[in-house]
Amino acid sequence: MAQRAFWKGYLKLSLVTCRVAMTPAVTESSKLRFHNINRKTGNRVVSRYVDAETGKPVDDEDQVKGYERAEDDYVLFEDDELEDVALESTRTIDIESFVPRSSIGWIWYDSPHYLAPADKVSEEAFAVIREAMRKTDTGGIARLVLYRREHAVLLVPRDDGMVVWTMRYGDEVREPDPFFKEAGRSDVASSAKTMMKKLMEARLRDWDPKLVRDPVEERLHEIIESRTKKSKRTKPKKTAEPERKDNVIDIMEALKRSLASEKKTARK
């Protein structure tokens, strides 16, 4: 079953325009969701917005967005006012410029979305833009309103479609120097680097999504299934904490032991 698009609009580059559809590339729909339950009655507990001073519930139509410019002093905005601020980018991805893909650090990438032509007529124009970016190894910079907020986005080719990445703003990314300078700079012996490389090669695997599975989620599903069947649940085994040592370890000795352990595992 095809994924239903959550956004439809237009992709525009100068005079080239085509209809496109977009959907988030990641989903958390399979994640467990818990409700707050009244232990005494077994009923769900619901939350309501209440006035901070009177404590009385506030109806949806009486709620507005407010920016606090001083204590207890707010500038109020209606929903349509916020939408009008970035009206042009609500339904059109207008590519403003192109940048080399290699020039963008991973830390600027936020959330990925799949983009594809919305109909047969749009496929050719979409493919022209996609293949031009692929050939030049560039990404397109544009602006787009998603989740009720305007974002800077990066478009990059992916298979027969594109990926639209929402980008972090400049003031959202901290400078690394103040933190990394505390890490110190130590000279590393070439023999240690060689052994570390061997250790890494022993653990080298082809990428598989199962490598980043969620053991906590799996365990929760087991507990839920067990309780659903009204069977007794065994308590999870406690993993022994590794022995902590305050003295500085011998990095060469640690590498030797690690490599020996990897070789034993490989033989098995």
From TrEMBL:
Gene3D superfamilies: 2.40.290.10. Residues 223-248 are annotated as: Disordered. InterPro entries: DNA_bd_Ku70/Ku80, Prok_Ku, SPOC-like_C_dom_sf. The keyword Flavoprotein does not apply. GO terms for molecular function: double-stranded DNA binding. Residues 238-248 have a biased composition (Basic and acidic residues). Pfam families: Ku. Residues 55-185 form the Ku domain. Keywords: DNA damage, DNA recombination, DNA repair, DNA-binding. One of its GO terms (biological process) is double-strand break repair via nonhomologous end joining. Homodimer. Interacts with LigD. With LigD forms a non-homologous end joining (NHEJ) DNA repair enzyme, which repairs dsDNA breaks with reduced fidelity. Binds linear dsDNA with 5'- and 3'- overhangs but not closed circular dsDNA nor ssDNA. Recruits and stimulates the ligase activity of LigD. Belongs to the prokaryotic Ku family. This is Non-homologous end joining protein Ku. The lineage of its organism: Bacteria, Pseudomonadati, Pseudomonadota, Alphaproteobacteria, Hyphomicrobiales. The gene is ku.
